[in-house]
Amino acid sequence: MKLKLTIITLTAVFIMIMLLQSAFAFSDVSESEWYTENIRNMVSLGLLSGYEDGTFRPDDDITYAEFISVAKRCVTGANAQPTGSHWASGNMKYAYDNRWYDYDEVYDADFDKPITRQMAVKVTAIAFSIPENEHDNNAYYHYMTSIKDFDQIPGRYAYLVIRAYNNKLLTGDENERFNPLSHLTRAEACAIIMRASSNSVHTPVQSETADPAPVQNYINGGVSQNGRLSVIGTQLCNQNGEPVVLHGMSSHGIQWYSNFASYNSVKNTAGYGANIFRIAMYTAENGYISQRDSIKQTVFSAIDSALMNDMYVILDWHILSDGDPLQYVNEAKEFFAEASLKYADTPNLIYEICNEPSGNVSWSNNVKPYAEQVIPVIRQNTNAIVLVGSPTWSQDVDAAANDPLYFDNIMYTCHFYAGTHGSQLRDKIDYALSKNAPIFISEWGTSAADGSGGVYLNQSAEWLDFLNARGISWVNWSLCDKAESSAALNPGTNPDSVWTENDLSESGKYVMGMF
Ligand code: DCB
Q1: Whether residue 316 is found in the same domain as residue 385
Q2: Is the CB of 227 under 6 A from ligand 1?
Q3: How confident is the model at residue 82 (pLDDT cuts 50, 70, 90)?
Q4: Most buried residue, 153, 170, 448, 462, by most Cβ within 10 Å?
């Protein structure tokens, strides 16, 4: 809807440009400069003006307030009413509310400072909805090497810079450097804004085909080492934009087995090398929906178990018998609003918004519309990773890849049970990756799909080889002592003792050995 409006507005804008090609002259802008056309268009659209003395000052810096206001006028057609003492306060608020920048990127005192190139790229990419084709791994690896100072670009901007290059909004300097902290000139601002506005009308230029992704070293380690995570291309990355993989255990249903989500239990898994813990908060089966306050308390204390152990933690809205996520969408929004606010400043959290859709549901008609309601609620508070399931107990990753979500830091979950699922499901994962859909295994078992049978260790090994070769993170079902083969602990294990080999089930021994 928003995109359609933008397209209509911009089409009108371009017609106006044609009509308004009236002569303009600034004493300091010669006809032959690379930017002259862009300045002429900006000025004739009323987006930016020259100075009273007849100059345009193309090489002067442009400030945050000026640049963001230009983008605001270009996207919506008007300035916003000031909300404070600064002339641009209304535009800045609009930009902030629409996530063109985050609270820690532009403070009020910065409004009149020169905008950095990394921030100009971010604002432009988001304001003009520049297509996210950096999720093409080829593009990512191409730019990682061709932008000579790529390692100077902070992780949170890296994929936006790639998006900007990929859509020809800008190029590097004569040394092929992006210079993330350098200032943007008024002439450059005109160019980037004009290109962005035409870009969101026209189909973006496709990335050049590049060499296949090099073999990577994936980083393990905990939260103190890796910090906030983001998704670059299809790869989960740490705060420095380096590829990271997470391995760990999922709890069983927290309404039954909260004792194995204790500090000591979770610490035991960390002792075996886990850097993530998943909290399976069932919605049905006596879970959250029927006893909200008590389950919430259990969940928050389980999150603390993980935080205190320097681990990432998945907060799993564990739909199962309630196969359609839309059934409890309002409850989900309320829950995730509270949780994401509570943990907005904690880098550990990963939000899994629907465990396993099943039954008569489709990706496009049920799961995607659900995600489009729940993710913005989380995004009000945090840009943390959000995991999204798919129909057929989170096996239809191909359907998700064919009709993707347009949010940053999204991954699609794929769940498998080694005794039931094999190469067909692995092929779906490769298909999804080929469509640039990031994959996260938030649940898998060494058993058959009902949680028992087996254990199927040869089949499990085939799966783990496959995942390791692709840098895909995984979480195993489940950390409890239930008498079923997928449980990692033998019946009667003390949650709070230091576990020995005798406490681990056959599955537990295998899985803990693989962290
Ligand atoms: C998933 C669920 C998870 C379930 C495991 C094993 O379901 F996410 O909640 O765990 O996989 O089935 C099991 C526990 C049992 C418990 C039961 C009900 O291990 O102790 O009694 O949940 O709470 C799947 C996964 C795949 C498939 C089917 C299911 N599949 N399923 O491919 O057919 O029907 O639950």
Answers
A1: yes
A2: no
A3: confident
A4: 153
